[in-house]
Design goal:
5-stranded parallel sheet; binds iron/sulfur cluster; globular; alpha/beta; binds adenosine-5'-diphosphate; 8-stranded parallel β-barrel
């Protein structure tokens, strides 16, 4: 297919100092949980992006010295020459596809932990460590500043030897000394490096100059810079940021701009839409003559073109869109823009990607599995037999299984009880702020619609009889799950008294309400008992508030939705619920409900309180919707006559989990179909060496 000429501008080369990006697609640095601990896996993941057409592929943060050790998070590392081969491998893989490799050098100062190195942390001034470790960083002396510059320079030289084309100086996310020196709240120095803005910028200027001097002949020097910190005058804010850009204007070869801290930069679709950073970064290009790259969860080529034409950016930066679809540039280039698997902005990729767990993605189940399982985001092994496969259930697990089996070339039949495909995604994408989640369904349905070998049957609630009579050799049961009504969950090992009343609701009741939530709920306050602790409780609180009901939010945890710390949504959720005037009661369990009020028990003491409410909404635990699977298990002796070789439950029907797990389960089924498992460990591992 031909590329749409409207998108030609996206494929223009861009000169960045001494190097040239072949197009405007730029994978900005992002963490991935593999880093220095899993170099082959890391290199393979970056390679897939280069293969997918990104002109620049960056590392994550790259530590330059043991005194800036960010363990337990696993990032890249260039402490000494031993670290060069791991990153040289990445450069080699990225270069093999004509892309440039970039490295984000950093020293995290008071935002490091030094738990591995046990060095004393350093900072512009004496201060506590940011991430709650109960010790402090010491103020850097002038000698420390000289040492720090020396480490940065040495790391830049190592990066050049590893093969990098672009070397970063990092002053963003409140995560590096170069930024900490800019911040009044972290820098109370009275010498040449503190006080006036010019003094606070001095170190950043010196680092850029040092890096250019060390490697600028061959490598471009990029500055990653946060233009707004949302901390008022205590932090970097627009007025000062403009002055900083004026002071450094053409010194770096590239400006990579975003907003801080990370929870503001990596906002979910629930809290920010595509292009949300533009108001904070668009002005940088008016000050510098050097190219500017910025982010904003860009997935639409039209939005990207508009950013460039309007002079907001020169290069389209992407972390998450490159994770959801590493082949995004290539698809647009080949006229397959409709095939792009768009990021849904859920931040599951963020949720563990700094610790030693390979990055995972809701939309792209192959992410993190490139090396250890050999999975690829755009290719899959061809079928090995003529087997007919029946997939029951068209939620994310069933859709992905059917799609990926179809991609392999099998004859697939997908039966769905409802009118629409999508399963839980249909329900959840209708909740406040979650509309983009519908992309999980939309991409899969659009791909399946193009496959002649995948037949879809809607409005088909299958029974065991139907399955046995279908003439399929393999059956996948992906029939989902439902929310418990009895209150059993993390905090209650037995049913909660009084929940067998009509004015007690589960998320299913609200999400499947035939009319409106307003007509479902009795008038009066709703006591929402959240024992799930992730996103759904706060989303349903919004839904109930929108229906005009008062919400009393009760959680046994110490805060609302604590797991959302992992998706960078925690602060946004706290703020949203307060804006909605939700009455929040933390550290309390739901003991009983008498129809007009609930007894709550403090989780730390024996104290009880009574709260009046007109209804209760429980979000506790789920159970597999596995009647069909169980019925088929009971009839196992009939499988042979029915021609059935295997019946497998996947996704929520096996164990209720996230949408990401369901998609992964569907992909895994398709990948492993017709293969013989080898051993108990089903993936390649990075094995520890016994000797140094
Ligand atoms: P998962 O997240 O594991 O994909 P979902 O709950 O999203 O699970 O999707 C399960 C889908 O299975 C729903 O769309 C539901 O309508 C469908 N389903 C459940 N039971 C049957 C059945 N017996 N026959 C066909 N479809 C079914
Ligand atoms: Fe996007 Fe979610 Fe995938 Fe992250 S996990 S890249 S936010 S779809």
């Amino acid at each position: 297919m031909q590329r749409d000429p409207r998108y030609d501008i996206l494929f223009e080369p861009v000169r960045i100092g001494p190097v040239t990006a072949k197009n405007r697609f730029y994978q900005v640095p992002h963490c991935n949980g593999m880093g220095h601990a899993m170099p082959q896996a890391h290199a393979a993941m970056r390679e897939v992006k280069a293969e997918g057409g990104w002109a620049v592929v960056s590392t994550e943060e790259c530590e330059i010295h043991p005194s800036g050790d960010v363990s337990p998070y696993v990032e890249a590392r260039l402490w000494d020459d031993h670290d060069i081969p791991a990153l040289a491998l990445m450069c080699e893989k990225v270069h093999a596809h004509g892309a440039l490799a970039a490295v984000e050098l950093t020293h995290n100062g008071p935002t490091a932990s030094n738990m591995y190195s046990r060095e004393v942390a350093i900072a512009p001034s004496h201060q506590p460590l940011k991430y709650g470790y109960p010790h402090q960083a010491r103020a850097m002396t002038l000698q420390d500043i000289r040492d720090y510059r020396r480490w940065h320079r040495a790391a830049a030289l190592r990066a050049k030897r590893a093969g990098f084309d672009i070397i970063y100086v990092y002053a963003a996310h409140d995560l590096s000394l170069a930024m900490h020196f800019l911040q009044v709240r972290r820098n109370q120095r009275t010498d040449d490096y503190g006080g006036s803005l010019e003094n606070r910028v001095r170190l950043l200027r010196e680092l850029i100059e040092d890096t250019k001097d060390a490697v600028g002949d061959k490598c471009a020097v990029a500055l990653r810079f946060a233009t707004e910190e949302f901390q008022g005058p205590d932090g970097v804010q627009e007025q000062e940021a403009r002055e900083i850009v004026h002071l450094l204007a053409d010194l770096p070869d590239l400006w990579d701009v975003n907003i801080a801290a990370w929870y503001m930069d990596s906002q979910t679709s629930r809290f920010a839409r595509e292009g949300f950073q533009e108001p904070f970064t668009h002005w940088v290009k008016q000050i510098t003559r050097k190219p500017v790259v910025g982010v904003g969860r860009f997935t639409s080529p039209d939005t990207m073109v508009s950013q460039i034409r309007r002079g907001a950016l020169d290069l389209i930066g992407a972390a998450r869109p490159s994770i959801a679809d590493p082949f995004l540039p290539k698809k647009i280039e080949q006229g397959r823009a409709d095939d792009v698997r768009e990021c849904i902005g859920c931040n599951i990729c963020v949720s563990g990607d700094m610790t030693v767990t390979p990055i995972r993605c809701t939309q792209n189940p192959t992410m993190g599995e490139e090396w250890r399982k050999g999975w690829h985001p755009d290719r899959i092994a061809a079928r090995r037999s003529d087997k007919r496969i029946l997939v029951v259930g068209g939620g994310p697990a069933g859709l992905e299984a059917a799609r990926a089996l179809g991609q392999r070339g099998y004859e697939v039949h997908l039966a769905e009880a409802g009118r629409e495909l999508g399963g839980r995604v249909n329900l959840e994408a209708r909740l406040p702020g979650l509309a983009e989640w519908g992309r999980v369904r939309d991409w899969r349905v659009s791909q399946i619609n193009k496959m002649a070998n995948v037949a879809v049957y809607r409005d088909n609630l299958l029974t065991a009889e139907d399955v046995l009579g279908f003439d399929a050799q393999s059956v996948v049961i992906a029939t989902g799950c439902y929310w418990r009504r009895d209150g059993y969950g993390r905090s209650n090992g037995a049913p909660i008294r009084g929940l067998d009343r009509p004015n007690v609701f589960t998320p299913d009741d609200l999400m499947r309400a035939p009319l409106s939530v307003d007509s479902l709920l009795p008038h009066g306050p709703v006591l929402l008992f959240d024992d799930d602790s992730f996103y759904l409780g706060s989303v349903l609180a919004e839904l109930v508030r929108a229906a005009g009901r008062e919400v009393i939010y009760v959680t046994p945890e110490d805060a609302v939705a604590p797991w959302t710390v992992n998706t960078q949504e925690f602060r946004h959720i706290q703020r949203r619920l307060r804006e909605l005037e939700v009455n929040i009661i933390t550290a309390h369990n739901l003991l009983s409900f008498d129809g007009e009020g609930a007894a709550l028990g403090c989780v730390y003491s024996d104290r009880e309180q009574h709260v009046s409410c007109a209804s209760v909404l429980t979000i506790t635990a789920r159970l597999p919707q596995d009647e069909l699977y169980q019925a088929l298990q009971l009839r196992q002796e009939q499988w042979r006559d029915a021609g059935i070789e295997s019946i497998t439950a996947i996704g929520d029907c096996l164990a209720p989990a996230l949408i990401a797990h369901a998609v992964y389960a569907g992909q895994r089924y398709a990948q492993e179909f017709d293969t013989e498992p080898e051993g108990e460990v089903r993936f390649r591992r990075h094995l520890p060496r016994a000797q140094n």
